[in-house]
Amino acid sequence: MSSELYVDGIGEITITNSIVRIDMMSLSATEKDGKNNPKPVFRQRIIMPIDAFANGVELMQQALNGLVEAGAVHRFSDVQKVPRLVPTNGVAGS
């Protein structure tokens, strides 16, 4: 039987010698920050040799490239900045 774990993201990646530790984080249902937003909390750690990490990064890069090509996600470098209005007489929108 396999188990699955949902996470909201990666909190930290630590490399010590030839071992990589990836801390998986989820947003807490009960803990809030100063702005009343859910706090990210540690859920589980993935520990692997550095060569397995490098292979995993390559596999994730291939998956990301497929998502970009399909238009499902956009890279930050591909997103154009929205031009902002520059007032000509000191009043915005004039």
Automatic annotation (TrEMBL):
The name this protein goes by in its record: Uncharacterized protein
Species, as recorded: Rhizobium giardinii
